[in-house]
Write a structure and sequence with these properties.
The protein is α+β, with helices and mostly antiparallel strands. It has a single domain, classed as Beta-Lactamase (2-Layer Sandwich). Helix content is about 35%, strand content about 25%. It contains 4 helices and 6 strands. A hairpin with a 7-residue loop joins strand 2 and strand 3. Helix 1 (about 5-15) runs antiparallel to helix 2 and helix 1 runs parallel beside helix 4 (about 130-150). The N and C termini lie far apart (about 40 Å). Bound molecules: methionine sulfoxide. Methionine sulfoxide binds near residues 43, 73 and 121.
Amino acid sequence: MPSHDEVLATIREQITRERDAGRAMTLAVGTLKQAMPDYSWVGIYLLDSNELVLGPFEGKPSPHTHIPLGRGICGAAAAEKATIIVDDVSADPRYLACSLDTKSEIVVPIMKGAEVLGEIDIDSDRRAAFGDTDQRMLEAVAALLAERMTPPAGD
Ligand code: SME
């Protein structure tokens, strides 16, 4: 299994050559899903006015393709503008179930300045699968993606 630093370096290299934000997101999602055995579902939600809309993802199709701000762990991370790690989703009343196999989740906002553009959402079938090194790597990936994304019109 590659280290977190190696995965980040791979994504940085892939994205550096990629000017299209959609393709950059798809590449990052694919690399994270392939390189990290505990990441059972990897997706990116994009903020569109007051809801998060599912973009590229790998894993089983999610019933949650549109999540209002403030709902679910995804909506909470966007509203708080901060990464949320949940070690045991069954103990978190905010959790919106995607798969019965999911045990833990991390949601990392993609920010441009103080503005949320979207977020990286990852589920694991293992309890407490996400730690500081995951958070640091994913926040770095989010920053790389933000450089390629345009804030929604009107802002
Ligand atoms: N669990 C998320 C919903 C999205 S699915 O995990 C893909 C949440 O609670 O916001």
